[in-house]
Amino acid sequence: MATKKTETTTKKRTRKAPAASPVRQDEARQDGVMASTNGIEEAIRRRAYELYLERGGMPGNPNEDWLVAEQEVRSRHVH
Fold first, then answer.
1. Between 75 and 31, residue with greater pLDDT
2. How many CB atoms within 10 Å of residue 1?
């Protein structure tokens, strides 16, 4: 008996990117709040690091540095 040869082709499968949904007004406000929150958090992070450097890089309590930095930064951002 003769065997029939079949050709196999390799097909690349690609995924389609999900369609972008329109941004609702409340989502845009949340993004603004998120950006604002991230900016404050970054300022706190920088200030906590400055406190560490002011100690000469000596070990300390990172949680205490964060809390002191948070209090300083938030007191400057009070409306």
1. 75
2. 3
